[in-house]
Amino acid sequence: xxxxYLRNQDHVINHKRVYRIWTASGLHLRLPPKRARIRRxxxxxxxxxxxxxxxxxxxxxxxxVGPQQQPVRIINVMDEGSRKALxxxxxxxxxxxxxxxxxxxxxxxxxxPAYLRCDNGPEFISHQxxxxxxxxxxxxxxxxxxxxxxNGLIERLNKTLRVECLNQCWFASLDELNDQLxxxxxxYNYDRPHRSLGYQSPESYEIANENFYFRVVxx
Length: 219
Hints:
Elements: H1 2-8, H2 15-24, E1 54-65, E2 69-79, E3 85-91, H3 96-110, E4 115-118, H4 127-135, E5 139-142, H5 152-164, H6 174-190, H7 202-208, H8 210-218
Parallel strand pairs: 1-4, 4-5
Antiparallel strand pairs: 1-2, 2-3
């Protein structure tokens, strides 16, 4: 490529000489650095026994259309037992600190789950989240890298959110997007039937299992 570049610049030079100069100078194209592979201990990922035993969390990326297209990230947190969407909200960016603030608010409403299931994103493997989980005696269950199917319940929720909400219209602002997300989550939790719950809504399923739910929270 360098040889033909020089020829196109009207430099008369032999390709062997170009090669000798190239190798003698130690020139090379910059290669992207290899990212360190994240290694996690494999654990069999079993479904929870009941409501509020385990939560799954993930992020969804999208954008809003305003004076400029603004990228946003959406926090999705769900109860794996009842399939209820516990938190769905968009932010300009999400740090580990913001994620912890969201989880603290959920703990104030539902109590502590036994575990949190998530992937290996930087916010999920951060020291702040590990310390927060240890302080609350919550186990962090990281899926194996490259295997999103191991967090299949939240991935299914992400797809439903995209198909039934995000792909339906353009959003002019972050506030407009969050208003629509709240409307969607109410429909999802209170009206939408789920086959895995015997075609009940998540809210109806939790009400039907209310005694078990409060026993888990109290524990």
